[in-house]
């Protein structure tokens, strides 16, 4: 769009001609997208917002995914061999099996009950000396509490035990808990009997005497005698769940005990999250209202705010259609985070668009809409392009993270930023064209907010901050460097950014709910590790929607083989059945020792297992991993289970109908199996399932599985229960890494690998879903964040030159400080917080990149660091202050929300924006002022200029000869050549298109156009035959060709110029060309500071006058500059009486010089009003001097311009000679045909 001036001009003309058509198209597209979403609303599921918080695509996650898929696919007919013509298989026993298990809280399960999703309520007594059986009244009170919870939230019958509700009193009343009055009728003898039963099941020495198996299992989940737990399942009943949540803290416990922890199931948390968001809808509504209020306060144009709203709707609706219907990504809660990030970025973009348009709209010489829009597109492109590309780089690298929710967040954010960028460059220019054409009928509040904004920002922002930066830059650099070092210590040493394993995915519950137990108090946990030994099967392409991620086992390759083939699992199992039986008998010794022996994969222990049939070895021991319990397939011992027990499991009825009459399989399975392998295998299968028929949780993770072909087993599940002892704590990644390392090297893995070498063997655990997430977070913490900063450094270096190094350094220190602040606020390393850290990185980069672009686009004569720093601050400091103020105001309501998601998001935006503003304003600007580049900022600029000179060598050869002859020759011949060259140059191009920086026009009384290092002057020199800027383009090409980049002509071309008062009979301004400078001054140049009164808001006082006076600035006298601009030529002395202009008239570079007699240290510009043909004698001569280093209001006086009327030619020549002789140098004069 702005790569070519010719294309830019054509594009602007297209916008001007069809801006109303563009509006119609945008409104129609928005309506179509919204209508399509409404029409397809039934396909959109907003309820499952917590799906996708799991890793995929890694070795650990793939093994875990296979385990969950096999558990979901297991059918009861898979337990036994069956014929191919058997009945259709039943549905999966547990299709809603929770894929993610919190390692801090074990899955609660009781035998004789199905696997249910329980809500865990943990109560603790107020008095540390109080226990459950200390007082009968306390016991009665707990009994009444259980009855109320059971009757209100479960569907249990009154005459039997219920698996939907588990409590201490309910377990002590087996099949007897029938009424509320039963609690009041408990006698002292019954109370003591219950107490004895409780102690009998609690004691480890007498646990074998405990006849209440449910109570015995329940007591294993109690960490202390001062606590008791109640488990209930609500069966995904939304009304009951919300009623429980609303009334949970309303129960009167008579100050005996209190509710300490609440642990909801994942499905219940999803219901509660939607409920919390709806309940806090007024906070969200207030935030949206403040968002548009800040837009109204700082944008101030109601029509443009309407366009911004339409832009947001169109971008969101189109991105959602692409994201959900085209890419088929799931909707997660982090998609809302993507939306908040987009609203933050569009707030920055809207402020930049409006300020650029405001400045260009109030330029006095840019009277045409074409010129205003061209300047607007140029400036906004150079600001928005690197800013948005930096955010896209961070998102693209984050997408390599294998957590599904993070990938959904990055994809949706990427679509929003990219599509919004392209829409903005079509919609916003069209809106400004509409505003310019119908400005009188569009409401605005610019005049209302002027006084408030000016009074609060002009003094502090425009004057105090630049002064503090220039005078104390060393102090700011030292201070923020020390703060960053402390931030690094906070992140990596103390208190340290740690994992939160107990809440590793998303923090759903409100702040006042305590759902996490203290992981530091945990010294050990029990884990179940499941080993898969079986046929290789292909997993289909992984779905990003976890609920649909159930792979179909495909054994097509094995089905083509015969049953005797050595590669089938059935054949390998028959060959190694004897070793499997011996291995199961050997594991009993390990249970007695309570110590797991491990060795390397190729150690001698494996050979001892195979050769000597024993586990005895002298290898080292894994002291942090103990073997607790196991149910080995191949155990020949009988197990007597009372089949009369009341059970509600899904497997028990089917197993009883297929049970074997044998009590053991010893007679069928001797040590030397020959012909009885099939009978032994069938007996072992029947014995194994009959002994565990009432325990569904063990059956779904153990035993043989027979798939569709019927007779041949496909795989074997073997689950071992370990006791994992911690050396430090559960949140330490090294503990998890050592756990996986020990499991890879233990003898069980080696045994299965040795006897089944050609089979597919892998192992995993339900808690390894947490380890798979921790692996990705660990990579993000150390690897991906480094790649992001390196990529940003390379990109910014290519885009902004050496400034990229300073910007990346500032962003790094800024990011470290923000993360340290969030760490002090107890932000842990979780999936949710990882998305916040990505947002922090994007916010930090936005501020620094914008300042660097403004520093880079400083005018070419600003070759001093202080000057560029002042220019950068003048352009963006007020805008970024307004942006930060808006973000704080918008986020304040969400800080008071009880939903942790809203409060944490608001805190992240407030902290990141405040710290980013401070670092980018004080640290970056001090760094640039202290050691930033002062000249050209791009590494490959000299090559570009050399290439440009080569291109222009043949085209401008004749003109160069003319220029050289005019500079060396004298008399009329040289003058004729110069006049001929000026005539050709003038007729070759006109003055309606240029490459301008209207920002700089607000700094001095005149204005300038910046030399863009992206194209700027060099483009003009290359495209000299196509551009219509004759004198400027040709002179720039001439200067480049002679290798003089910083000559007096080039500096004069981009130094401020003044405009004269309007002609008496015309509304347009008439100007004289600027006066160039002669030889280069060798004296050191002093800093050329910027007037602090110039800003988009301070200009409002000038442009808010009456229409008749809007284009007529008041006359002023400006003091001469106390210092020369860097690399400038000696200035000329002119008269001090001239009316200044606050814009940049386009002037031609003069091609001839007028001799002067003296040189002085002031920097004046002489301009001559273009005289109409009918009145050649009337001229208005206005002379303007450059402003002082820091302009003051005391230096400005109201004077009228000098008007020379009815002067003869001789008098005018004498006046001109007197004026130029005083300076002592050559003066170039040329009439200006601009405007």
Automatic annotation (TrEMBL):
Domain called SSD: residue spans: 341-434
InterPro entries from the UniProt entry: Dispatched_Hh_regulator (IPR052081), SSD (IPR000731)
Membrane disposition: Multi-pass membrane protein
GO MF terms, alphabetically ordered: transmembrane transporter activity
One of the GO BP terms on file: smoothened signaling pathway
Location(s) in or outside the cell: Membrane
Main subcellular location of this protein, as a coarse class: membrane
PANTHER family: PROTEIN DISPATCHED (PTHR45951:SF3), PROTEIN DISPATCHED-RELATED (PTHR45951)
Protein's recorded name: SSD domain-containing protein
Native source organism of the sequence: Adineta steineri
């Amino acid at each position: 769009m702005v790569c070519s001036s010719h294309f830019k001009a054509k594009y602007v003309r297209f916008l001007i001609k069809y801006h109303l058509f563009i509006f119609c198209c945008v409104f129609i597209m928005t309506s179509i997208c919204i209508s399509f979403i409404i029409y397809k609303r039934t396909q959109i599921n907003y309820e499952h917002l917590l799906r996708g918080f799991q890793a995929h695509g890694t070795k650990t996650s793939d093994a875990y995914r296979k385990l969950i898929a096999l558990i979901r696919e297991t059918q009861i007919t898979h337990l036994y061999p069956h014929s191919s013509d058997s009945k259709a298989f039943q549905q999966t026993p547990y299709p809603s099996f929770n894929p993610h298990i919190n390692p801090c809280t074990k899955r609660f399960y009781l035998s004789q009950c199905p696997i249910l999703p329980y809500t865990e309520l943990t109560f603790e007594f107020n008095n540390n000396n109080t226990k459950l059986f200390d007082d009968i009244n306390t016991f009665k009170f707990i009994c009444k509490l259980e009855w109320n919870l059971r009757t209100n939230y479960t569907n249990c019958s009154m005459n039997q035990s219920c698996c939907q509700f588990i409590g201490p009193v309910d377990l002590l009343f087996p099949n007897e808990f029938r009424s509320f009055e039963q609690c009041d009728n408990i006698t002292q003898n019954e109370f003591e009997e219950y107490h004895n039963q409780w102690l009998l099941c609690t004691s480890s020495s007498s646990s074998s005497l405990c006849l209440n198996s449910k109570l015995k299992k329940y007591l294993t989940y109690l960490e202390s005698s001062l606590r008791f737990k109640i488990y209930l399942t609500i069966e995904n009943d939304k009304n009951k769940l919300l009623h429980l949540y609303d009334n949970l803290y309303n129960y009167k416990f008579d100050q005996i005990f209190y509710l300490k922890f609440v642990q909801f199931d994942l499905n219940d948390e999803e219901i509660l999250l939607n409920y919390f968001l709806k309940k806090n809808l007024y906070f969200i509504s207030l935030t949206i209202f403040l968002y548009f209020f800040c837009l109204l306060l700082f944008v101030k144009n109601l029509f443009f705010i309407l366009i911004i709203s339409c832009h947001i709707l169109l971008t969101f609706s189109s991105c959602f259609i692409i994201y959900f219907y085209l890419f088929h990504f799931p909707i997660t809660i982090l998609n809302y985070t993507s939306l908040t990030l987009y609203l933050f970025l569009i707030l920055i973009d809207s402020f930049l668009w409006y300020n650029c348009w405001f400045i260009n709209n109030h330029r006095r010489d840019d009277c045409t809409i074409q010129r205003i829009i061209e300047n607007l597109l140029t400036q906004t492109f150079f600001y928005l392009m690197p800013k948005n590309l930096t955010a896209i780089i961070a998102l693209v690298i984050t997408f390599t993270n294998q957590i599904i929710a993070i990938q959904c967040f990055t994809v949706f954010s990427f679509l929003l930023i990219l599509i919004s960028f392209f829409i903005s460059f079509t919609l916003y220019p069209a809106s400004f064209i509409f505003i310019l054409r119908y400005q009188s009928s569009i409401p605005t509040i610019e005049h209302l907010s002027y006084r408030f904004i000016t009074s609060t920002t002009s003094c502090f922002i425009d004057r105090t901050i630049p002064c503090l930066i220039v005078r104390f830059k060393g102090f700011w650099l030292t201070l923020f460097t020390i703060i960053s070092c402390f931030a690094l210590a906070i992140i990596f040493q103390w208190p340290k950014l740690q994992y939160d394993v107990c809440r590793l995915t998303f923090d759903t519950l409100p702040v006042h709910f305590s759902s996490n137990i203290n992981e530091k108090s945990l010294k050990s946990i029990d884990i179940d590790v499941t080993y898969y030994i079986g046929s290789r099967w292909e997993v289909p392409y992984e779905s990003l929607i976890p609920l649909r991620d159930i792979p179909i086992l495909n054994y097509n390759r094995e089905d083509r083989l015969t049953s005797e083939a050595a590669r089938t699992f059935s054949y390998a199992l028959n060959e190694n059945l004897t070793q499997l039986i011996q291995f199961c008998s050997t594991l009993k010794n390990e249970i007695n020792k309570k110590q797991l022996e491990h060795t390397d994969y190729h150690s001698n222990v494996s050979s001892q297992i195979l050769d000597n049939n024993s586990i005895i070895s002298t290898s080292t021991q894994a002291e942090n991993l103990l073997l607790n319990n196991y149910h080995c397939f191949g155990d020949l011992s009988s197990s007597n289970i009372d089949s009369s027990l009341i059970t509600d499991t899904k497997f028990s009825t089917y197993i009883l109908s297929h049970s074997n009459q044998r009590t053991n399989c010893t007679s069928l399975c001797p040590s030397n199996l020959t012909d009885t392998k099939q009978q032994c295998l069938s007996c072992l299968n029947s014995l194994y399932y009959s002994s565990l028929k009432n325990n569904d949780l063990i059956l779904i993770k153990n035993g043989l599985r027979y798939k569709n072909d019927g007779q041949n087993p496909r795989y074997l599940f073997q689950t071992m229960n370990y006791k994992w002892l911690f050396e430090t704590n559960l949140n330490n990644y090294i503990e998890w890494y050592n756990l996986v390392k020990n499991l890879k090297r233990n003898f069980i893995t080696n045994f299965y690998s040795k006897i089944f070498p050609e089979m597919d063997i892998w192992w995993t655990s339900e808690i390894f879903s947490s380890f798979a997430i921790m692996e990705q977070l660990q990579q993000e913490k150390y690897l991906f964040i480094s790649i992001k900063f390196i990529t940003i450094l390379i990109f910014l270096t290519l885009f902004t030159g050496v400034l990229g190094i300073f910007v990346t350094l500032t962003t790094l220190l800024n990011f470290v400080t923000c993360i340290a602040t969030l760490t002090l606020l107890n932000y842990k390393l979780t999936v949710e917080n990882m998305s916040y850290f990505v947002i922090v990185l994007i916010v930090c980069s936005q501020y620094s990149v914008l300042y660097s672009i403004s520093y880079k686009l400083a005018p070419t004569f600003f070759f001093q660091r202080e000057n560029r720093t002042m220019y950068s601050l003048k352009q963006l400091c007020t805008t970024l202050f307004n942006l930060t103020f808006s973000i704080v105001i918008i986020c304040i309501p969400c800080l008071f929300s009880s939903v942790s998601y809203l409060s944490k998001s608001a805190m992240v935006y407030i902290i990141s924006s405040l710290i980013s503003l401070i670092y980018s304003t004080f640290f970056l600007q001090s760094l640039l002022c202290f050691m930033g580049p002062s000249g050209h900022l791009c590494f490959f600029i000299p090559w570009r200029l050399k290439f440009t000179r080569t291109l222009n060598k043949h085209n401008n050869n004749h003109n160069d000869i003319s220029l050289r002859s005019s500079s060396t020759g004298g008399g009329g011949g040289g003058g004729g050549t110069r006049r001929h060259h000026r005539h050709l140059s003038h007729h070759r191009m006109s003055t309606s298109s240029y490459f301008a920086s209207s920002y700089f026009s607000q700094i001095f009384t005149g204005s300038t156009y910046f030399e863009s290092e992206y194209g700027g002057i060099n483009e003009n020199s290359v495209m000299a035959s196509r551009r219509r800027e004759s004198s400027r383009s040709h002179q720039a090409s001439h200067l480049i060709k002679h290798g003089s980049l910083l000559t007096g002509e080039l500096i004069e071309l981009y130094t401020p110029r003044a405009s004269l008062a309007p002609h008496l009979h015309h509304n347009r301004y008439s100007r004289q060309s600027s006066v160039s400078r002669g030889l280069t001054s060798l004296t050191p140049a002093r800093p050329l500071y910027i007037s602090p009164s110039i800003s988009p808001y301070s200009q409002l006082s000038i442009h808010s006058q009456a229409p008749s006076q809007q284009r007529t600035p008041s006359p002023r006298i400006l003091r001469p500059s106390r210092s020369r601009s860097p690399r400038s030529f000696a200035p000329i002395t002119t008269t001090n009486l001239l009316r200044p202009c606050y814009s940049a008239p386009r002037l031609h570079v003069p091609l001839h010089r007028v001799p002067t007699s003296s040189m002085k240290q002031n920097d004046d510009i002489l301009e001559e009003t273009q005289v109409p043909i009918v009145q050649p004698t009337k001229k208005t001569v206005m002379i303007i001097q450059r402003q002082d280093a820091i302009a003051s209001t005391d230096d400005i006086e109201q004077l009228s311009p000098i008007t020379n009327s009815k002067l003869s030619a001789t008098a005018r020549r004498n006046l001109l000679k007197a004026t130029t002789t005083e300076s002592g140098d050559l003066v170039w004069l040329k009439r200006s045909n601009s405007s």
